[in-house]
Amino acid sequence: MVQDTHDSHSEEQNKERNEEAQVHKPKNKRKRLQIDDLDDNSDKRGVCYLSRVPPHMNPSHIRQLLSSCGDIQRIYLAPEGQSTEVTHKKAVGFRGKGFSEGWVEFTKKSVAKRVAKMLNNEQIGGRKRSPFYYDIWNIKYLSKFKWDDLIGEIASKNRLKEQKMNMEISAAKRERDFYLSKIQQSLAQKHIQERRKKKQKTEGQEGNGEAVPQKFHRKVTQKEPVRSGAFENEPNLPEGFVAAVAGLF
Questions:
Q1: Residues near 166 by Cβ (< 8 Å), separated by ≥ 6?
Q2: pLDDT for 231-243, tens place per residue?
Q3: What pTM, to 2 d.p., does this model score?
Q4: Coil, strand or helix: which one is 8?
């Protein structure tokens, strides 16, 4: 009786495990299918270029405005340079992070073409309280352009920027070293000229018969060494006394 209950319990556990395995298998297949679909649909996607990004606009705003036209995969906005940021701060008073241009990737090329054709030179709209409500879209579809091309272009720009910065740093270091060497040379020449002037001055005073100030020499008195026979009551030691004393030690 105990064995029958144990067998039935083990059979139930095996059934539950098999059911769980069957449930989990389709999920893994779905994940693989989704990854394969993303890889396969890379050629079907379309990219639109934004030649101007209004102030206060960020990627979340663009996704919110353009998601109604179609599915969006990725968005990249290029940050502005320091000079443009300074001009925006002075003219508009905008102290946030600004963007100069951007790229938007749609899941389908047809959607990207339709969005560019429909929204180019049109009012952005949206909420009336938004700061870019009255701005205009500057959007263009890029044919035969992929997101990988954009990544490669950004990487090359960053590489060139880093090389330029390293060159500027090395040039600044060379200028600094040259400046310090010139300062040292000028100080050395100044010291030599001062010594020459002092020498010429002393020689001129001697030639004119003028009294040249003598240098002060400090005299140090020393005591004379004590000679033998200086003391009257000096004891007379026998010969060989010092040798005998030294032999004891």
A1: none
A2: 556 666 666 766 7
A3: 0.50
A4: helix
